[in-house]
Structure prediction request, 225 residues.
Amino acid sequence: MNIFRFAGDMFHLISILVLLLKIYATKSCSGISLKTQELYALVFVTRYLDLFTDFISVYNTVMKLVFIGSTAAIVWCMQWHPVVKRSYDRELDTFRHYFLVGACFVLALFLHENFTFQEIFWAFSIYLEAVAILPQLVLLQRSGNVDNLTGQYVFFLGAYRAFYILNWIYRYFMEQRFSRWISCISGLVQTALYADFFYYYFLSWKNNAKLHLPA
Amino acid sequence: SPKGSSHDEL
Prediction:
């Protein structure tokens, strides 16, 4: 464990909690893509299949449970909470995310570390996390609605990616056996897509700021 | 002892 990875994990966790709290506090999920949140839930479930078979550390186990729990809570809130679900942009959140699931699974069948059930699902979850932001990006381009996508959420998401890249650089130089190519390359693709999301976030935020200029 | 899973990252 190094400080970059720990910070990355903390920022990732905070970004999810910020989103969950925002949805719960405002009882609204307008502007949030349920499909992206469903993909994140699938990422965590398929990545942590070893939750009950491999014990790495208390921190590792607790964080896995918290990631699965908090993302599941967001999906539940957006789909079943009587008040929140009414504000879901169902007609705008139309990205066919099943294609992403299928494509990532096929890729994992070809590109993985070992051809075992657990390893293929692990690689699948790494690829899926990289593209999971797409439905949210498309929804943001269509709606320009950043009401629930707070600046903090975007900041923590960016910090998570930045610190994880620092973590890989650190591990590359510090550990003789660097076998994280799948995580690393997929993580770079993910960070590029996040940068695109941040760009559209900034445009939407700027436009909204202009719209609300004092008359 | 914890299995040396190469996937110790979250």
Q: What stands out?
A: Chain A has a mean pLDDT of 96. Chain A touches chain B through 20 residues (CB under 8 Å). The helical segments of chain A are 3-26, 34-47, 58-80, 97-110, 117-131, 134-143, 151-174, 181-211.
